[in-house]
Amino acid sequence: MSDFDAISSSRTLHRLIYASRQRIAPGDLDNALGEIIRASIARNREVGLTGLLLVHDGWFVQALEGAAEAVMTTYRRILDDPRHDDLKLLSAGPADAREFGDWNMCARRLSAADDAILDALAQREAFRPATLSGAGALRLLKAVRGIQHRTTLDAIV
Ligand code: FAD
Fold first, then answer.
1. How many beta carbons lie within 10 A of that of residue 77, not counting itself?
2. What is 3-156's CATH number, 2.40.50.140, 3.30.70.100, 3.40.50.2300, 3.40.1390.10?
3. To test the ligand 1 pocket, which listed residue (37, 65, 78, 106) has its Cβ within 8 A of the most ligand atoms?
4. Every domain of the chain and the residues it spans
5. C-alpha closest to that of 62 among 75, 73, 72
């Protein structure tokens, strides 16, 4: 059974995580990210998807969660997007609960101060997210979720 068959076999909550290489000129990254996030939030809201997009060192790592059909349809569109390539599916399957339910999509870039996260995942010397296990990729994105939450709280206080 293919990954797509596996995730489309049920309408229960599913989560998919992939890594890909950015194909965006460095000077265009801010604008391109803005476009990607605006389109993602609008479309994901329509189909009940939530998730997080990590943007670091020439890579994207993204989690999508929602009904299997919505996850699969969206991932197929993302696969065809020329703004990235070399997509590597890291995990896909049923999930007990949403981990990124605060956002229809949220992009986060890591700063130098966030390097401890990469240390913990032995990814600091060379960020190679395509080599992560599914569990490792989820740990990474959950750590990024924590940074995003702290940053939001700091902005409020
Ligand atoms: P249209 O907007 O009609 O565009 C047609 C084609 O052109 C598509 O292949 C599209 O990918 C491509 N395209 C669109 N804009 C540009 C551009 N500025 N430069 C180059 N090519 C372009 N979409 C979601 O709905 N949810 C997500 O969570 C999501 N996450 C994404 C994460 C990443 C890392 C990237 C790169 C894209 C993501 N997208 C997401 C965008 C997705 O790939 C589609 O562009 C978007 O969903 C619109 O699809 P569409 O078929 O309506 O394409």
1. 10
2. 3.30.70.100
3. 78
4. 3-156
5. 75
Residues in the ligand 1 pocket, defined by CB under 6 Å: 35-36, 39-40, 43-44, 51, 53, 60, 62, 64, 74, 77-78, 80-84, 105
Asked whether the whole model's pTM tops 0.70, one would answer yes
Judge contact between 100 and 50, C-beta under 8 A. Answer: yes
pLDDT tens for each residue of 85-117: 999 999 999 999 999 999 999 999 988 777 777
Cα–Cα distance measured from residue 116 to residue 122, given in angstroms and rounded to the nearest whole number: 10
Atom of ligand 1 nearest to the CA of 42: 25
